[in-house]
Amino acid sequence: MTASISSPHDLAVLIGRFQPFHNGHLSLLEQALRLAPRVVVVIGSAFSARSPKLPFDWLDCARMIHAAVPESERARILCVPVRDHFDEARWVRAVRSAVAQVLAEHHVAPPASTVLLGHFRDPTRDYLRDFPDWTLHTLEGTPIRRASALRDAVFSRGQDGLADISAEVPAGTVDFLNEWIARPSFENLRQEAAILREYDIAWSVAPYPPVLVTVDCVVKCRDSVLVIQRGHAPGKGLLAVPGGFLEQRETTFQSALRELEEETHLAVPHATLQSCLKGNDVFDRPDRSQRGRTITHGFFFDLGDREPPSIRADDDAAAASWMPIDQLCASEERFLDDHFQMLDHYLALLPR
What we know:
seven-stranded mixed β-sheet; globular
């Protein structure tokens, strides 16, 4: 696996979530090490809340990645975190910026030739085409189960499940997972994973794969925004914007008003809310929700400089509060699914 001076590229880039790092990822990494003297591994969804879908933080992922290769090769691999963005073009810019920044931090000259490695498993891999100045090197996928199935095996069977997947992940990943299973946080994630499996079982009899429709509300007043703390799984205890599932006989806007009333009892007349509506967008990234394919309609209400109206948590919300906008970024890893990205979309929390 040692690169020689005849390596065809100066830099190789690998992008993924690595939840967990498995043999399919390893085959890409090994090829990257053959193609370039330096490899940057971009770890996506890096600042999301821990969940059965994203149980490992980006440092956990970096640890599994480095443990998968001989110690002599580890210095050649630079891991860098990148958050999700609602805007695909913005995400591409973030990836490019992260790669450039980590190279500069390690005093590596800008590469003359970069190769991007991956494989087109499904449409979620179309981002591989968004870097036209990088040489795209595609490989066939390693015949193992998806990362979701590997996680499910461990959540459902613990140590027995880990033994079941040991042939599909590097030894370093097995060692990490043995330690991770012993963490106090594992049991909470395991319980939430069981609830999500019940969702899957309930929908398994549907004649077509289900596509769920929800609404979410970003409500700004002065320098604060309305947030709830979820009272139930999935995401019990996490922060979220008010919202929920569309009902059969209502429009998405009617659903938004109903959810605001049910979860927060926001003391603002519907007519006033309609006059304060400043934005309405569809958030439809296929993997945005733990509950499966869920398309949400986001509504942005700006109540201006009035005194923040009274609120009271109810229904699915364990708590409701007006959170100062300048505190949102520090709480990014506490938000459910892509709710922080929604807030960023409407409130411009992060640099563009």
